[in-house]
Predict the structure.
Amino acid sequence: MRRITSLLLALLLLLNLTACGSSAPAAPGSSGPSQPEVPAQEETPASDAPAEPEPEPEPEPEPYTILDPTVQPEGGVRDGVTYVAYDGVVEHLFFHPVVAYPELAFDGDSKSDGIDDWMVTAGEYLKILQSVYDKGYVLVDIADCWSEQTGEDGQTRMVKNTLYLPEGKKPLILSYDDVNYYEYMLTNGFTYKLIIGEDGKLWSWGLDPQGNEVVSRDLDAVTILDKFVEEHPDFSPFGAKGCLSLTGYEGILGYRTQTDSKSWTAEQEANRQKEIEAVKPIVAELKRTGWTFGSHTWGHISLNTRTVETVTADMQKWFDEVGSLVGETPVLFYPFGGRLDGDDVKQSGPAFQWMQQHGFRIFCSVGIDSWSKCKSDISAVICDRLHPDGTTLRSAKSREKYMKFYDAKDIIDLGVRPQREVGWQ
Ligand SMILES: [Zn+2]
């Protein structure tokens, strides 16, 4: 029954996407810089012999450096850039998968309005990235923004870190909810999965409206940001990208790694193992290039209304089927924005405590600004995220609130979206 309820909720989510999100970065405060090894140069032997066709060489990944923004560069300068201490607000924007083909997403079917409400198109997303870049934001990893410290009373608590940023820059966290490539999305104008291309980089794979296979870096939120950072390396001075918030009920990243309690055959299990092997290099490449992961629960369940037993059983499944593939994470993204135990601001209820005991330290909901609070009774930080999407792009009030990032008027593509009301002129 619980399983059916989860599925129903999942279906509800798909029909009526509301605020959600998740991604999992490294352990809080401990995500030290990891220096990828520089691949050895292969020597090409000179030869006059007629060239024989050689097997395609495995692409050598380009080195990718990830740095810790809480460490001040020696002398305050790195690569000619001056870094200064920043203790202000760290802004946090989150996205859902972006619409690759508006003509499929906004075709007037039962999903159109939900997609219009909670998603942006690939074109709008790129314009948002360009705008936040132009306004001086730089990307930081969510797990670098707080650390766990032990106080004089012997209690551990989360504290906000001082970040050392290029002078004049402002920090920005990006997170991405439901990066699962749900079945319903495949026929509604989204990409199907992430793959590794012949160049060793991440690409998206999918079908265009005519049914042709498309491998691209311009249609998916992950690859668009990868490309943007390649073109604007100063947008990510520490190598951070975003935190990917994953459920588990339809697998992860476009790979069907989930179990199904309704029926399970040897064939299904064999296919699942194949998908697990296929997604491993994708996870590894994402991690290598600055992406982190967080939990969005297994079944996209409403954490504000479910019993502790339901929540913990669901999360155990997440650890088994998702955590086992992406690794430990301190970040939990609330499905539907529903706060644990109904309220995580005034209290740390039993479900909240269970999550904290199971490694979570950063609990993300959705709100009207990038509010955050380090709790005093337990080592945890709770925070809200802003949500660039159709609801906020269309609203006059939101347009004002988001003006520090972009002007919705310049971003929204009314030519492809459904003919629905816009609150501003
Ligand atoms: Zn969600």
Notes: Residues 20, 177-178, 296, 300, 335 surround zinc ion (CB under 6 Å).
